[in-house]
Amino acid sequence: MLAAKTIHELHDLLVKKEIRPQEIVEDVFKRIEAVEDKVKAYLSLTKELALKQAEEAEKKILKGEVSPLTGISLAIKDNICTEGIKTTCASKMLENFVPPYDATVIKALKAEGAVMVGKTNMDEFAMGSSTENSAFQITHNPWDLDRVPGGSSGGSAAAVAADECIAALGSDTGGSIRQPAGFCGVVGVKPTYGCVSRFGLVAFASSLDQIGPLAKDVRDAAILLSAIAGHDPYDSTSAPLEKKDYAQKIGEEIKGIKIGVPKEAFGEGLEEEVKTTLERNIQIFSDLGAEVIEVSLPHLEYAVAVYYIIAPAEASSNLARYDGVKYGFRDKEAGNLIDMYCQTRSKGFGPEVKRRIMLGTYVLSAGYYDAYYKKASQVRTLIKEDFLNAFKQCDFIITPVSPTPAFKIGEKTDDPLQMYLSDIYTIPINLAGVPAISLPGGLSKDRLPIGLQIIGPHFSEVELFKVAYQFEQALGMKEKPEL
Amino acid sequence: MKITKAEVAHVAKLARLSFSEKEMELFTEQLNQILLYMEKLNELNTQHVKPTYHALELTNVMREDKVKPSLATQKVLANAPQADKDMFVVPRVIN
Fold first, then answer.
1. Do the Cβ atoms of B34 and A417 come within 8 Å?
2. For an engineered disulfide with A81, which of A27, A103, A137, A194 has Cβ 3.0 to 4.6 Å away?
3. A423-444 pLDDT, tens per residue?
4. ipTM of predicted assembly, 2 dp
5. Structural domains of chain B, count
6. CATH code of the domain covering residue B20
C-alpha cells in the first residue's frame, strides 16, 4: 500500500519512475474510502485538485525538477488558508469561507509540487485538546475508536496515523501538534517561534501560534519543515532565517550529548505507564551514549495558569474580527448593527471559543489587566528563563508529551479546567518559544501510543532532528493501528 | 467568588456576545473555577520581573515603503455576507 509509505520512501520510487504521483493519490483515496467512516479525520476532500496537482508533479519529475515533496499527497489543517478551497477552522463562523489567497506555507508546498488531498478536522479555531470542539464532527483515534485523537490538530494526526495521507500540516499554540501526535503515535514538530511564517494561518494567539509538520517518521518531519520554514516578509514576526535542509544531520551519532530530565516532569497526575515509558526512554538515550542528567524547571507548575490567561487574551482580540461584515457568518435577523454583531458572534461561535473570548476579555478589562495579563506575562519571563538556565547545563530536555495516553471521547468535555491541565508538558514550550518534537516512546498495555517530547534551545531544529532520529531508530517501534 | 453573574454580563457586552440565562449561569461557574486556579500565580513575587509579550524580541521590522499588488476588490467581496457594487452592506447605523 503506497498510502502507508513515508515521504522519503515514495520520493525514491518517484525518482526511479517506478510509480507515478497519480498512483499515490489513488491509493490514498482508496484508503480514505476504506477507513474515513470510522476515523472522520477530514472536513473536506479535494480529489479532483489532487489529481490535477499530481499531473503537474509528474511533468516536473519527467523534466527532472524534483524536490523531496514533489508528488507527495499531504493533508492540511483547516485553519491554514488555501486559495479557492474552503477553510472553516471547524467553525460555523467560517463554514462557507473560501480564502482569496494561499498561506505562505501552502505557496511553499505548491512550489515544491506537493499534492493536497484534503483539509483536516480540528477543535474550533484550534481551541481544545481533543478535536471534540469541532462544530462539524468528532474525529476518532485510529488506535482506539472510542478515544480522542487529541487536539487541536486531531484530524491531521489521525489522518497520518490511519495512512489517509502521507504527512500533514498542523498548528501548535499550546501543544496542538505534539499532543495529538503523541496520542496517535506519529511524529509532530512545534518549530521555534518565528521559524515558519504565520501568514495565512487563521490567528488564535499570535505570540504562540506556529505551523508545523505531522509525519510518519522523524526524517519526513524534517523534510516537511525544510519546505515550509524560512523568512517571510508577509509575517513581521518571522525570523530572518535562510532556507536549509533540516534533515542534514540525520544519521549522525549522539554520543556525549547531554540530555536533561526535569525533576518537575514527574509531578502529580502523571500516569504510571507514562512514567515507566519515560524511564525506558531515558535508558535508550543512555544506551546511545548520551549523558542523562537531572535539571529543574521550577516554574513548570505555573505554565497552565499563564497560558490560559495569555492565549485567551490574544484570542479575544484576534477573534474580534468576526463581526458578520467582511466575511463569514452573519445573523440576518438582527435589525441594527450592535444586535447584528452580538447575534452573529453568539450563533457563529461554539461554547469553548466563547468561553475563551470571555476569559480573554475579562483578563484584559479595566481593573484586571495588571492582576492577570501583566502578571501572567511576567511569569512567562520566569518560565522562559527556566529553559535558558536548563540549556546551560544540557543540550536537550525530555519530558512526556501528556500525562496520560489518549482519553475517552466525552471524558473531559464537561470540565474545561481538567482539559486544560492535560496540556501541562506542551504549554511551557510555546510560552518560551523553543522548538520541540513529539514522537512515539512506546505503547501502553492497552495498545495506546505514549509520546516522548524532546525540547531544544531556540533554532536548534537541525540538532533536534538528529537526536530524535537516533532515538526513533533505537526504539524501532513498528506497530501500526489496526483499522 | 472571583466573578459575579453581573460581571459576566458586563464582559459579554464588551465581547459582543449574548447568552441565555442558563448559559450565563454555567459560564459564571466555569469562569470562577478557572480564575480561582489562576490565583496560583500570586504565590510568586514578580515585582521586578520584566514581562514577556513575545518569545522572540524582534523590534522595528521595516520594509521599503513601496506599493505592492493587493487582492482585487471583487475577490475580497466574494466572501461578504452582503455586498453592493464595491462596498460591504451593513444594517442601518443611524436612524
1. yes
2. A103
3. 999 999 999 999 999 999 999 9
4. 0.95
5. 1
6. 1.10.20
